[in-house]
Design brief:
heterodimer, A: about 375 residues, Cytochrome-c3 Hydrogenase, chain B, three-stranded antiparallel beta sheet, B: about 160 residues, alpha+beta, about 20% strand, elongated
Amino acid sequence: MYSTTEIVKQSTAEGEMVINIGPQHPATHGVLHFVITLNGETIKKVEPHLGYIHRSIEKMCESLSYRQFVYVTSRMDYLSSHINNHACCLVTEQALQIELPARALVIRVLMDELTRLASHMLWWASMAMDIGALTPFFHAFREREMITDIFEDTCGTRLTMNYMVPGGVLMDLHPDFQKKVHAFINQFKTKLPEYDELVTDNIIFQNRTKGIGYLSRESAISYGCTGPVARASGVSCDVRKHFPYAIYDKLDFKEIIDTGCDSWARYKVRMQEMRQSLHIIEQLIDNIPEGDFQAKTKAVLKPPKGEFYSKVETARGELGVYIVSEGATTPYRIKFRSPGFSNLSALEHMAVGGKIGDFVAVMGSIDLVIPDIDR
Amino acid sequence: MFLIKYIKEVFGAVKSLAIGMRRTLSYFVRPKEIITQQYPDERPVIAERFRGEVVLMHDENNEHACTGCTACELACPNGTIKIVTKFDTTPEGKKKKALDTFVYRLEMCTMCNLCVEACPTSAIKMDTAYEHSVFDRNKLTKKLNNEGSKIRSGVE
């Protein structure tokens, strides 16, 4: 952590000014602190200060068993908690070589895509709110509420799920699941054009986002950006396409790539991804196979000695889980490669040289979730 | 040419704003689509699987199915559950382990459902109660087994 004197010492140059954004600023979507050096209105330097919500999840996981540590990861990227849990279950299943029943795989993919939709909807709402439009927030939350209701019916929780367990899923689908998802699909299909009318076609929004936050293809790769941030810079990096897990290799969906490299391109990529997620859900919802929802596993999971890594595509990018096992009931070391941290590190590159007024529009387009960055 | 392009842009901008405003106004005249719930007066419908708190199920004879095996205590990731056991004397004169107090600390519980999954006799379940606010933190530490309750016969 920097002390105040250090910050002042760094900014003695003529005509420069230091301002702090956060840690309690509504546009940072959490407790993130930026120290921004300005020359007039032009950004000279951006320093993110992290650690306000560090809970040492990696260390906590080392004292929890392979069944227990899954639930903590819901608290990392809380907007895609199903997908975080999926990553942890995948690595345990890879270590123990558990074969999953077909029903469990389909349920997992359905839940993942519903989570991605809910997460992108919340991003869309908050991005518009950052730029100054409050109405879209309520529109997006109306549809997101339908998804959280679906989750509540089946999983029993609305945000921190702990629904995926090593070997399958915790409970079977609720009898109303298919009916409710169909209702959601119909509702969302009629409302997506409204989203476009309200925000995408809005000239103020377009002028605020076009041409700012430029991130070239090379920089996106060198900063390790993943997810929509990298795909808007023309990097093909969808884990679902390149390293398919669950049943993604059998599904028909497109990887959305845009070469605009700016905030507007990142916006467009996410809007298209919502349509692709909807397409995946439509393919699966009427074809859920019958059978078990959980494979038979031992009461105490003891993976063999070795190192295991698995990755999934969350709503923000690639989440990797790395486990070192000593053959005991708890992991010896666990490491999460979270997408938010790498995407945040590219923020300085995007913002420097731009205006302070555009900073929030750049930050909104990265879709930061602070607990995911700090862990 | 520049002027025509400029005027076209201005009209395009005005049109895009007008479309957005039309959408907003259309909701303004359709108050039926407003979805706000007036919470304390209007009670929300809670899903049957909603995880609100852990309860130990008792039947009408004040009997439960908990054997005091501490499987839930071991499964809990944050030390929410503490099982205090005692030794009962069976009619045959043998000593048998039984549940004395089922301590449940609601303030530490994350509703992860792992204890319910671990229970071999299905003695506990998740309840849908969701209004947990109290004035004193100590009230959140609960004793789940009723006064004078005992284990249902036949449950091992």
